[in-house]
Design goal:
By secondary structure, the protein is of the alpha/beta class. 52% of the residues lie in helices and 11% in strands. Helix 1 packs antiparallel against helix 5.
Length: 208
């Protein structure tokens, strides 16, 4: 079956993440590493709320401060969230823009404003803009909803007219993949920062 629509996640798929730098930054303000943060509900909930753009910087710093080093500043806490953000390889942008010539290509990302601005600067630094790579953007901080909530996927399908059976979705998070599958979307689980490892096989398999 030939798929007409391609949906990409951003962080860990289009944009690389620097886990080593992130771990050092988190620990510098008193957090455990990211896995440790996610394992602790008291930290995970405010952290993901912020990283998905569903609360303000001030609200996040207020809610997370009890779990930080007592003398950590707001700027240091916020930097610990941003430190994971890394580069976007030029070759990856070139591949996506080539796909956009023959397919509907959308970005569906759980992201907060600062991280999105970082991603845009990375694209610009390589000579591209979001409009060159994607036909439409679906960003959690703008939509005030986030994956794996089925509503954000349903909104994308409704606004674009994409047919699930004609759509393939690349994400590095299993929960998000499972939601897309339930809607009938073809999915590919991407190893973090390694889109190229699965892209060619996925495109060949789906005859894109």
């Amino acid at each position: 079956m030939k798929h007409k629509t391609i949906i990409f996640d951003l962080a860990g798929v289009v944009m690389n993440l620097n886990i080593e730098r992130d771990t050092e930054a988190l620990k510098s303000v008193g957090f455990p590493d990211f896995a440790g943060c996610v394992a602790n509900d008291d930290i995970r909930v405010p952290m993901l709320t912020y990283l998905n753009g569903l609360c303000t910087k001030a609200e996040f710093c207020r809610d997370i401060r009890p779990f930080c080093r007592p003398d950590a500043t707001d700027d240091e806490i916020l930097w610990s969230m941003d430190a994971v953000l890394d580069d976007i390889p030029l070759s990856r942008l070139q591949t996506i823009t080539e796909l956009k010539k023959t397919h509907n290509v959308y970005l569906l990302s759980n992201i907060y404003d600062t991280a999105w601005q970082h991603a845009v600067k990375e694209m610009n630094r390589k000579g591209y803009g979001p409009e060159d790579c994607f036909d439409k953007l679906f960003l959690s901080y703008e939509m005030q909803m986030a994956k794996p909530d089925v509503r954000i996927f349903a909104t994308l399908l409704e606004e674009t007219g994409a047919i699930p059976a004609d759509t393939i979705y690349f994400d590095d998070t299993a929960e998000n993949i499972e939601t897309a599958k339930r809607l009938g979307i073809k999915t590919v689980l991407v190893p973090m920062n390694r889109l190229e490892d699965v892209l060619e096989t996925a495109l060949g398999r789906t005859q894109l």
